Amino acid sequence: MTKIIAIEWKLFLREPAAAVFGILFPTVLILVLGAVPALRTPDPAFGNQRFVDAYVSTLVVIALAFLCLNKLPSTVATYREKGVLRRYSTTPVHPGKLLAAQLVVNTIAAAISVVLVMVVCRLVFAIDLPHHPLGFFAACLLGTTALSAVGLLIAAWAPTARAANGWATAVFMLVMFFGGAYLPRFLLPDVLVRIGEHLPPGVGALQDAWLGTAPSLVHLGILALTTVVAGTVAARSFRWE
Predict the structure, then answer these.
(1) pLDDT score at 47
(2) CB-based contact 205:139 (threshold 8 Å)
(3) In whole angstroms, how far apart are CA 239 and each of 20, 95, 107, 151?
(4) pLDDT of residue 160
(5) Domain ranges of the chain
(6) Strand, coil or helix: what is 43?
(7) Peptide bond into 133 cis (omega under 30)
(8) Which of 33, 76, 98, 139 has the CA that lies 20 to 30 A from 50?
(9) Are 140 and 206 in contact (CB under 8 A)?
(10) Reported confidence tier of residue 41, pLDDT bands at 50, 70, 90
């Protein structure tokens, strides 16, 4: 299993676009936004906080959404289409271990991306680190597993790698919209903000943990439920070839 994870990590790094966008883009984005003086000024719209302070949780959403909804479904669907999973089934190594390795690689990449964002936010913009570290860790972990389960579900149902890319892109755009990536969440109607708080990867839980309160058990519970339901359905309906 360790060997498979190491190989999948090397393959991940051999795709510069995926590695750069998935790991570095959130950090580059906060540096670009932070270069605008108005976004570094306290604003009543954000509870007298700066825009960069309120936008950190959205950066986490961007990182997790790209890795779990763009990278994961495409890779798994391509493996099945090219017969990689079928070849694995002829060896003592179960193809499921390859899927597990994908989850581990995505989790590692997500952790690197989030930590990099935290370091840059702290050193460059003096943004406080998460005030509730344990809650933030739980929200990140459950957000990653929930979106990964959705990504595997897409890979399980999509007939081809091209179809997986199309379906994943549609879900990716919805997650980004509700996560505040396209429009700041304070500009969205309250009903959309509430929906976004409960959808994976749980921007509400991430923001609560970062700003100082424990994330809602309801938010974390929905993420855990999504992981179990989507993961179970994906596992039972997945076609290895």
Answers:
(1) 67
(2) yes
(3) 31, 11, 24, 15
(4) 84
(5) 2-237
(6) strand
(7) no
(8) 139
(9) yes
(10) confident
pLDDT digits (tens, 9 = 90+) for 96-123: 888 888 889 988 998 999 999 999 988 9
State the pTM of this model. 0.86
Rounded Cα distance, 102 and 11, in Å: 11
Question: What integer is the mean pLDDT of 36-54?
Answer: 78
Structure tokens at 70: 């763009």
Which amino acid belongs to residue 163? A
The pLDDT of residue 5 is above 90: yes
**155 within 8 A of 237, measured Cβ to Cβ:** no
Provide the 3-class DSSP secondary structure of residue 49.
strand
Residues shown for the chain: 241
Q: Is residue 106 within 8 Å of residue 144, measured between CB atoms?
A: yes
Question: Tokens 């809602």 sit at which residue?
Answer: 216
